[in-house]
Amino acid sequence: EVLSRSALLQELVIKGVMSCVLPEVKDLYHLLEHEFLPLDLVLKVQPLLNKISKLGGKLASASSVPEVQLSKYVPALEKLATLRLLQQASRVYQSITIESLSQMIPFFDFSVVEKISVDAVKHKFLTMKVDHM
């Protein structure tokens, strides 16, 4: 059975997974899933990602995974934070300058943000128009 995103998130809550995660991971989840902070979402996310990138290590011998390095998830989390910011900004702003948007997303050069934006629009994740003038 393939679970939808919302069903998967609900399953995590029901099974109490969030009570077992590190505080930085829990804070990141809360920011990305429950907060509406279009102006400073990424500024709040970035320090958490810096901490998360340094976490990891060996797990208990009973675990099927001997070791985990959370740093490998940081690029995908940066992309998710960028998508969330774009999604939230599109609800608040009718227009925003490329310079302002670039300052709000320090993870990537604007060309990367533009590609993420185009993909998000193509997959109907958000609605936006870019005016390069």
UniProtKB/TrEMBL annotation:
Give the matching Gene3D superfamilies: 1.25.40.860
GO biological processes = formation of cytoplasmic translation initiation complex; translation reinitiation
Query: Per its UniProt entry, which superkingdom is the organism in?
Result: Eukaryota
* Pfam families registered for this protein in UniProt: PCI (PF01399)
Q: Which GO terms describe its cellular component?
A: eukaryotic translation initiation factor 3 complex, eIF3e; eukaryotic translation initiation factor 3 complex, eIF3m; multi-eIF complex
Q: Which residues form the PCI domain?
A: 1-133
GO molecular function annotations of the record: mRNA binding; translation initiation factor activity
Q: What is this protein called?
A: PCI domain-containing protein
According to its UniProt entry, this protein's organism is Opuntia streptacantha (Prickly pear cactus)
